[in-house]
Amino acid sequence: MSIFSGNAVAHLILQSDMVSKAVLLILLSLSVLCWTVFLQRYFLLRVKIKQLAHARSALASVNTFDQLKLTVSTLKDTYPGLFLVPALALVHDRIQGKIENSLQEKEFFSQQIFSLFDDLVKQEMKFLSLFTATAEIATLLGLFGTIWGLIHSFIRISERQSADIITVAPGIAEALITTLAGLLVAIPTIVLYHALLTKMRQAEDSLMVVADRFEMAAKKLWEKEFTHAHAQVSSTEKPEPAAGKPYTAY
Length: 250
What we know:
Structural class: mainly alpha
Largest sheet: none
Radius of gyration: 33 Å
Order of helices and strands: HHHHHHH
Number of strands: 0
Helix content: over 70%
Strand content: under 5%
């Protein structure tokens, strides 16, 4: 009978002790968790990338601050809205406060935009630690199972004062099955990690393009609104009459 047949593997698992069964159960739980998170995050990232592409095209046609507000309002319930809504608030505060678009203010505004972008990227990346931790833990659990099975083999040899195959085989079987289980969890988890990382990089690049387009449009509209407001203030100012005698033409 092949060792990879279902009955043989099930028999090896049933014949193992509680520690080996606990190791196998932990490995199975980690594998199910990683696959669940991967599928959920992977398909969600596909949706987010499509939403970011739509946001890019929408921001390209913005020419006024009202159009910018309307565009952001239509995207507020999407993934780009998590960035655009607080970014629009930064622009609104500057325009309403009539803050001059000086070089220092522009640099500070760019830093705030990058901070919003960086926060979103960190939120996406935090799920990757699950995969790296699982790959490391699965490998170590497999090694632990190997050592545990070998210890059992030596204990049985000392108890029976014999090193025949009947005495040694159960411990060796425990060692091999846990080692195999650890590798079967660790290797696919590493593959899932890199697949998800690649998709996250695509989303990050798309979000960067959205952030750049928003920043360029915001600075342009900020300068336009500030220039317009400054011109209105200048036109409403009335010159005061000059003191002294009125000028008389000869």
